[in-house]
Every structure is written in structure tokens, then in C-alpha cells.
Batch of 2 targets.
Target 1
Amino acid sequence: MTLLSAKNLIKDFGGLRAVNVGAFELPQGEIRAVIGPNGAGKTTFVSLLCGRIAPTQGAIHFEESDITRLPAHDRVALGIAYTFQITSIYPNLTLYDNVMLPAQRRASLNASNDAADRAMVALERVGLSSRAFERAGSQAYGHQRLLEVAMGLALAPKLLILDEPTQGLAEGEIETFKELIRAMAKDATVLLIEHNMNVVMALANRITVLNFGETLAEGTPEEIRANADVQTAYLGG
Amino acid sequence: MRVDRALILHLAVIALLFAMQYVMSPYHQGNLARIMVLATYATGYNILFGYTGLLSLGHALFFAAGMYGAGMTMRYWDFPAIAAFPTGIIAATALAFLIGALALRTTGVAFMIVTLMFAQAGFLTLLYFNEYTRGDEGFVLPQADRAIGMIDLSADDTRFIAAWMIFSVGLLIALAIVRSKAGRVLIAIRENEERTRMLGFNPFPYKLGAVVVSGAFAGAAGAAYALLFGSVGASFASIQYSIEPLLFVLLGGAGVVLGPLVGSILIFYLIDYAREITTAYLIVVGVALVLLILFARKGVLGSIRRRTDGWLP
């Protein structure tokens, strides 16, 4: 079943066509990686999907319903969560308060009363529960990235969009992240923007390659590895 | 169950304020009554500025709406005080809803300017309709009207208790709001609005709610001021009355429920003592603000909170 699809999705910034994706389909349960050279439009593309920016043209469907004009906060209610490329947390609040917000949102959507439990579970899953009442801003960078993911998790989304989650992390931390993403994919479809090929190859079921805002190739990791166009785009042939 | 020490602290402060009437001279008792009314105004302002992070320069308009909502209905339609007070609150709340809905289309500096412009327009409107508002020189509510049943609100002791009741209710409402789920969202909007939106919260209704609540507090304070001290005038809609709650909140501690009370007391007495020494008493206020920015940027209680694990709401 297709969870999310986009058709003829175009975003222009002035004269620049940042995104021009003819067709994009994301089946439920998949881990999909979006890769591409710097400036290929990856972040712009997923920002269109999660509603942070509005498309110039095109249509986006999520679980059969048209969400093209839906504001970002309503898409979150439908089950689309987004974690930022540049760490975006509440540095002055505790880790617990950081995850409490999305947990509270999910609890109110479910009309349940379990926000506090959800918050602690989300922190446990990323291994930060022992630091729950420390200030988020005083945590190490790697822990802040994990917190960002925990905030996404606490929303219990159907689709989790991770924008370069391993950026700036050490090797050991990246291993933790891989395990974490694998575990999350059991409950949610994952759309992953990633530069680290090791992570992409290890996790992705399928890969979409963007170049100059357009889909250059799409396929399994093996197919993408063997694709001549992709090699040219990356190596600048 | 865990001891709710924040609630106990706030109740203790309320009890302490009540007890002050027995130890204070009538002069200071009158001052404290006035401070509590102004602190109610600032407590509401703190929800908007301290907790939601929206800086309005136009709340004098809501203070004046409360004041005129109560004063005009008493003067022209012979409303009894008991009906005039809620009329003032309703007038201010409705106006806050309207102006909030318009001004919140802007953010940051533009929001400050738009709120300031609305307040100035309101101030000038009061002066323009001087025939009815007596805006320029103000009017005095007759002492006989300033009573609820047999209770004379203009007498020293009843006035103190009335001011104390309004402040206490306001303080407890503010405490409940900032500790509620909605209060958590307000703080989140202050800290990182874009992140909050991407966690599924539409910031607009929360921000509008903060404007309306702070407007209602301002209106309650304005109406109380008219009833307790008897004077109604356009000067209360001037920029000075928009800046005042901002100063109280900054000095006492933005984003601390008790901050505005502490700030109001400090600034009120600072001006009071400075006036005895010099006619240029505003210089003293200016120096106090410079010292604040240099040494205690989070205000008095904000600085204390940093040393106490931040449990103070």
C-alpha cells in the first residue's frame, strides 16, 4: 500500500527550480533513503512533503487524502513527523519537557491520558532516560540529535522524515543511530535524507537519487550502486 | 502525593499580602492596594511576554478599555459597581481578541509596532471624543457609586481587601495557566515556534489566547483601578501605561509567575523614594534598569530561579 505519493511536484525559488519531481511513491513500511549531491533539493523536497513550505505546483497524497494545501501542524496530526537537519530542540527546557510536547500532542490526538508515559518511553528508546531532567542545551551534540529523534518518536508517527540524522556524529554514535532507525522502522515508514553511504546502504530498502531537483534514479541499494548516472552525478564526470 | 511546593509558595505570598494590612500604615496600605492592582495587570502581561515571548507595546489600550468599560457604564447608564466591573473585563477581552487577531499576522518588531499603533489610535480616540470620555482631564467616579451593596470600595480597608482579592485570583489563574498543558505549549512557542509547529501545534490560537488572557487581566486591573481609586482618564491609555507592565515584568523576572508582583513593588517604591529626593526621579528608574541589564538580565526572581533548580514556575 502506498503511504505517501507526490505528483509533478515543483518548487521555484525566484528563477530557480529547486524541486521538480514527476512521480514519487513511498510504500508503507519501507525505509527509503533520499540521496544526492549538495544542493540537489533534498531538504526542499521533504519540506514540501511535511508542509514546512508550500509547493509552486503539484499534488501530495497521504493515505489516499490530498494534503497539498494542508498546513504543517495538521499533517503532523495525520501522522507525518519531521526532524530537522539543523538540531532544533528547546535548549532551555529539560529533555523530559522537550519530549513531553510531542507526547502531549499524540495523547490528545488519541484522546488518552498517557503523555508522561509516552515521553519517558521515547527517551528510553533513544537511551536518554537517565538524563530526563537535565537541560537539553547542556547536552552533547550527539545527545541532542538523539533527543530530536525522540521528539519525532513521541509523536508515534506513521511516517518519520529524518533530515540527515547522523550529520556531525562520531562513528560509534552512527552505529547507535543505525540500530535506532532499524527499530523505529518496525512501527513507522521512514524517509531518510542521508549523506553517509555506509548508513544508506545498511538501512535503505530503496533509494531515491535527486540531482538538480529532479529524480535521477530510484531503486534498491545494489541497483543504485551500479547506476552509471548516479556515479557521474556524484563524481562529477 | 508529592508536595506541591510551588502552590504552597504562592498561597503563602497571598497570605503574606493579606497580613500586611495589619502591620502597615494607612499610607503604605494604600500604596500596596495600588501595587496589587498594577501587579494584576503585569501578571497578565507576563503570560504574553514572559511565557509566550510576544512583546506588546499596546496593553494600555486594554487597561483603559477595562477602566472606561466600567467607568462609562457607571457614569452614563448608572451601572452598579458589581456590574460595571465585569463589563470592563468583557470590553477589554473583546478588544484584545480583535486586535490580537489582527496584530498576530505580524511577528517580532512589527508586532510591537502594530500593537503600539492600535494603542495610540485608542488613546487619540479617547481624546477625540472628549465630550463623552473627559479624556484630557479625566473624570472622577462619585464615592457613593463606588460600592458593592453596603461595602464601600473607596474606604482604606475594604479597598485593600478588594485589590488583594483581585490580585490573588489573578495570580492563581496565572499559575494554573502556566502549569497547564496549554502553558507548556506557550513556553514552547517562546523557545522555538517553528519546532512547535512541526510537533503538530498550530501556534496561532495559542498566541491569540495569550493576547486575550493578558487583555482580560489588563481589563480587570483597569476596571478595578476605576472602582477603587475613582479616577478615569485617557492618560491611562497612553504609552506610559503600556511600558509599565513591561518594566515590572523585566525587573521582577519574565516568565516567573511572581515576577510581576516583585517588579511592581520595587518600581513603585523606587519611584516613591526617588521623588522625595529629586524631581528627576525617572533617572533613578533608568539607572535601576541599566543595573538590571548589566547584572540580573533575568530579573530578580529569574536570577533566583537559576540558583534553585528552576522549580519556581
Target 2
Amino acid sequence: MPALILENVEVIYDKVFLAIKGVSLEVGEGEMVALLGSNGAGKSTTLKSVSGLLGPERGLVTRGEIRWGDRSILPLGAPERVAGGLVHVLEGRRIFGHLTPDENLIAAYRGRSMARFNELREQVYAYFPRLKERIKSKAGYLSGGEQQMLAIGRALMTEPRLIMLDEPSLGLSPLLVQEIFGIIGTINAEQGMSVLLVEQNAAATLDIVSRAYLIEQGQVVMSGSAETLKSNPDVQDFYLGGAGHTDYRNVKHYRRRKRWLA
Amino acid sequence: MAYFIELFISGALTGLMYALVALGFVLIYKSAGVPNLAQGALVMTAGYAVWMVMSWGLNVWIAIPLAAAIMFGFGLVVERLLLRRMVGQPVIMVVMLTLGLEILLRGLVPGILGSTPKPIDLGIGFAPIIIGDVFINRTSLYGGIVALALVGASLLFFRTRLGTKLRAVSDDHVSSWAVGISVERAIGISWGLAGIAAVVAGALWGSSQGVDWTLSTLLFPAVAVVILGGVDSVPGVIVGGILVGVLGTVIPGYLDSIAGGSTRDVVTSLIILLTIMVRPFGIFGREDIERI
């Protein structure tokens, strides 16, 4: 039974700007799914429609349905959705810069039991041992990679069933991207936590997810298993760097071929 | 010399009384990230609330907690009716909104409850404490002690889990929502706490000068205190308060007779101006962390 279902979701910002035009996707329980696409394709908007964070940007889901398990989450506010097990790691990390890493984790913990908190905290530090070394300094002074780790760790404190990650690779070195993606894979495997990963870095992403959706100009234009997408010649050309055999005489074909849906 | 010492002590104690007013400003800034220019009127309203409850014939030590409960509720209502609409809007909107609230309350509350000065008797008495040649005002002395105690309590509060969540909210509203913190409720609580601080300030100031609209003019020295001490620093209100109080008492103590009065406001304004020019985030205020 799929855990998260988006059906024809349409989001309009400021009552005029149509950001996503009928996106449908599914993330099954324990599944690891990617949402790929270029800048401005509507990836972040899709995630925000699930986590309920469109409000501050004056966005609104105007059509469609979002279901989590067997109930619609559209009427719920952001904190209720987190309580229901959905958590969103925002693009650009957005950790609480003036708090220490520990306080970041405290702020995100929702339960009452101190023992459970310590357990979760130890788990976060086990995934990200680097954070433990920086426990005393303000989180704003951590490096980019450490902040990303903290952002993921903070999200784990809410005990989610589905974690949505918005471009965790942003601004990080390839080595760090590998490390962080590896940990995401571990969390997915060990805890059976579903993962919805939004990325521009298609090459690294398709290596760790099982399925992926490709979104362009607010519409899902392609979906399938990671293998299928990886072997698709269009995806190879436009997202995977042409697999090293770009024929620049045919670059003009780009425009003609980059139309999958009418 | 005794004159100087007396001015100094009285200034320091007055400054701590300013700190009581300023504390409400800092509580809101530190936990919601918004400047609250209605704190003067909040103190005035709280003073009226204490007087009102006492006029029902209740003892002052019952009246103050009751007034605190009323003002906590008042803070929640302000958030629900006014600030919730400001979510995601630029900070200047909140500044103008709270300034508007200040002006509204200044007119509305005395209009309803009466504009003649209302007495609040805390049972402190007016006889000064005399040490050598120096006279110390009893209300100010107790006010100063209460201010120190409240600041200590606030410091402890921000270390608790709720306090940590509130600080997180002041850091980043959107990522607070993203991890399930209810930003609306956090802002409501911070206004409620500022309401409670306002009751303490209103009761003490009200007992020394009576409750009427002039209590709301405490906003001006309070703003000087928070700018000097740092808008988000709890210990900053003590240091800023003492500095503003001492400078604002000692200097007029010598200059008023020459200039013909009212140099206190000039000193306060100069403190605000100089702080903003030399150290815009105040003595203890946090700088925004920017990584390059």
C-alpha cells in the first residue's frame, strides 16, 4: 500500500502564478523515490505542498488531492503533518543558526519522554559523528556539510515515517554528497523510513533511489525505475551529461527532442 | 559627593525599573523575532489591570497574579487577532502594527477605565531608606530587586525546552514549521509572557507615579535600554537599563539647573543615536551569522 499519494496537485502562488500543473506521484512505504528536474521546475513547490509550507509564500493547493496513508492531509497545518510523520528538510539547510546543534535537536523533538529524546539524539550522533565534535559551537558556524547533516538530524528528531529532502547536495563537495547520500540510504534501509529526494544532481541520485519522477515546467514528464531512467537516452543527454558522447553538431536537436508530453 | 552618589544609586535603580519594561520587549524579540513597540502601552494596560482587580476589593498579592493571568490572555488575543495575519509579511509591517496598537491602547484604555491617575498601593511605603547622607527610594529599590529576579527567571526559562523552541522560532519561522513547531502558538506565548512582565512593571511604576496614560511613555527609555543592551539579550536589559538610568539621572542632575530641565530625554535620545552609529546590535546583541 503506497504511503504518500499526490493526485493531480496544482499549486498557484499569489493567485496568479501556476507553479505546478497537476503533479501525480506516489511514495510507497519504505520506498526511496527521487524527484528530478532543473531549476524552477516545481520540485520544491511539490514538497512544500506536502509539508504544508506554502502559506508563508502565499501559495495554495488549488486542485488535486494529497493523501498520507488513508487520509487527506490538505486540511492539516504544518505542525499536524509533522505529528503525522511527514517531515521536510528544507532547501538551503535552514538550521537554527543561533542555537547549538544540541538545541537544534531539542527544538525539533516533539515527545515528552526524556529517555526517548536521548535515544533519538544518540541515533543522530551515530549517523553523523561529526556533529558531536561541534556540539558547543553555534550551528550557524558549522560548515555547509555539517549544517546539512544537522538539518537531516533535526528532521529525524520528529520521528518521521517519510522524510522529504530538498536538494541535500546543494553546494557540497562530491565526496560529502556521497557521504550524505550514503547515510540517507542507511536510514532508509535500517529504519524502513520512506524517502522522497528532490535533486538536480541526477547522476548521484539515480544510483541510490529505486524509482524516480522527472518534473519539467510544473509537470511530471517521465517516471519509472531508476534503471529505466538511467538508460533513457534523453535523460542521459539532458541530465546525466550525455554519458561522454555529446555530439555538438546535433545540439540543435535538444529543443526538438526535449518534448515528451504535448 | 553625597549628591553624586545619591544620583548614581537612584539612577541605577530607576534603570532597573526601566529594565522591567524593556524585558517584555526582549522576551518577544527573542522568542518571536518581532520588535514590539506596544510594550509601553502593554505596561500601562497592565497597570490598569492591577488597579481594576484591586478596585474589586482584592488584596494586592491576589490582584497581581490575577492581573498577570489577564495580561497573559491579552497577549494571546493580540497574537490571534493581529499578529497571525502578519505571518510571512515584512518586519516593517509588524513594526507599524505594534506601533498602531501602542497608540490605540494609549487612547482606548484610559478612555474606558478613566484617565485620572489611579493609585496602586503595594504596601511599600514612601519613607526613604537613609544610609549616611544618601536617600534611597523604597519603591525603586524593591523594583530593582524584582527586576534582577525576573531577568534571572527569564534566563532560566530560555534554557528550558519551551524556551529553546521559542528561540528556534525567532531564528527561522519556516524551518520551525518544517519540524512541527507551531509558530503561531510560540508567538502567542511570547506575547503572553511579555504581558506578565508588563504586570510587574505596571504595578511597580504604578505604585510610584500612579496609573494613567503616562505609563506608556516608558516605551521611550525602554527602547533605549534594548537598543543599548541588544534587542535579543536578556542580561542586556540589566546592563542597558543601569546605563540608561544612571546617565539619564546623573547628567540631568547637574545640567537641568543650567539648561532649564528636560535634559533626560536628550540623554536618552543620544544613547539611542550613538548606539546605532557605533554598535548597531547593542552591547550583548547577537550579530547575524553570515558564512561566506
